[in-house]
Amino acid sequence: MQLTLWTYEGPPHVGAMRIATAMRDVHYVLHAPQGDTYADLLFTMIERANKRPPVTYTTFQARDLGGDTAQLFKDAARDAYERFKPQALLVGASCTAELIQDDPGGLTQALALPVPVIPLELPAYQKKENWGAAETFYQLVRHLAVKPTQPRVKGNQPRCNILGPTALGFRHRDDVREIRQLLALIGVTVNVTAPLDASPADIARLADADFNVVLYPEVAQTAASWMTRNFGLTATRTIPIGATATREFIREVAALAGIDPDVAAAAAQSRSPWYAKSVDSNYLTGKRVFVFGDATHAIAAARVAAHEFGFKVVGLGTYSREFARDVREAAAIYGVEPLISDDYLEVEAAICAAGPELVLGTQMERHIAKRLGLPCAVISAPVHVQDFPARYSPQMGYEGANVLFDTWVHPLMMGLEEHLIGMFRGDFEFHEDAAPSHLGGPATQAPAPPALIEVPTTPSAPAEWSPDAEKELRKIPFFVRGKARRNTEAYALSKSVPVITIETLYDAKAHFSR
Q1: Residues that constitute the known binding site for [4Fe-4S] cluster
Q2: Which of 68, 280, 406, 468 is an active site residue?
Q3: Looking at residue 509, what is its pLDDT?
Q4: Does the structure show a pLDDT above 70 at 98?
Q5: What is the pLDDT of residue 421?
Q6: Which residues are annotated as a binding site for substrate?
Q7: Who's near 139: CB < 8 A, 6+ residues apart?
Q8: Whole-angstrom distance, CA of residue 131 vs CA of residue 139
Q9: In the annotation, is 280 catalytic?
Q10: Which of 132, 60, 133 is nearest to 100 (CA)?
């Protein structure tokens, strides 16, 4: 455990709270000191949930340490059951209470409550939030899922489970809606979505499906692997983030469901691929991008950035050490050194060294990019309240691909506007004192164009443009392209440059930006 100002993940009991809060008819009894109830704020203030998490804290104080803290926990567990009547009870300890070693699981079993009691062993000083969420979901599945006595008889439509979405997850609510629509479109029925909106009774019937769809491996991979071994349920491996990955996801699901993949792949389209090839986006080709987040979103974002938007990935990393191998393999594709770290200062140093033009990261990288004056888009948890929008805004599926395009490209386009304002500052048509041309009014004498450069009085032939410079000039928007051409030619004339190259074009840009 490291003392730090910012952290990418909380302790593992916060991951357990994400599972409990996502589900119905589940309650979590947490042995914790007074003050650990801060975790409620993550859901009520950041996610803007309309109810507090289903968690009961023992909230022992310093004076209680000299007495029987075990009895405090038993009383809290008994009272929680009597008050909330859950179908299943999770019990565990926070990082501080773990030091007392009161054994919440054994204490609750001694109460002989009439519901399943699932003890959580979450080593707070070795593991973190995502691991805690995965372990909690795995224990729920392991204790509650019922193995069928006979092989399942397949119905008219194939059935699947959607695994992984949780409370406090980055766009999980909208992702589930998008993927459910996509599965329905290709003829696949959803049996259970878990843990989000699932009850213990739903967990019990997970085996009544043909396969599992794993959307967030950080949370669901452990449970899905257990079901593969014990129930024979295969699981998808493709994460449908981006138009290309969504098509691959459809083909994978179609193969598992036994339906025609070609028909399924043609069932939906995205506007993102066409927009990415449009004239407006050509200016963005080759932009340098640094990607950091949880492994699932970071790998997917790098793929979309490189193969769908034409960006150049100059950095790729994750704080998810459990998936470090996957990130290293992805980084090798782009020829960059993988960054596996949960130290935000190390991430900031890597961003500075890479010199990107766009940062795709977490709430942490949003702050880092702001300090460095770089555009940024959030792609992964940890996130803040603005990343739980009221509107429908998925990251997955075809609509998710559209959202990615808008979210990533708009910061760069705004950067382009600032660049143009700087390039033509002081121009007689665009300067800050010029009257708006669209408002009408009495005609006024336009000021004479300022002399930007003192040119020689002796006549001189204008410089010629090289083909590469002409091609680069065409990337500038048409409404200022003529001004850029005249400024560059004037600069070349003042410097006695016979042929305008790309270097001359950018030298002129730097000169007039001062």
Answers
A1: 36
A2: 280
A3: 86
A4: yes
A5: 52
A6: 415-416
A7: 118, 119, 120
A8: 12
A9: yes
A10: 60
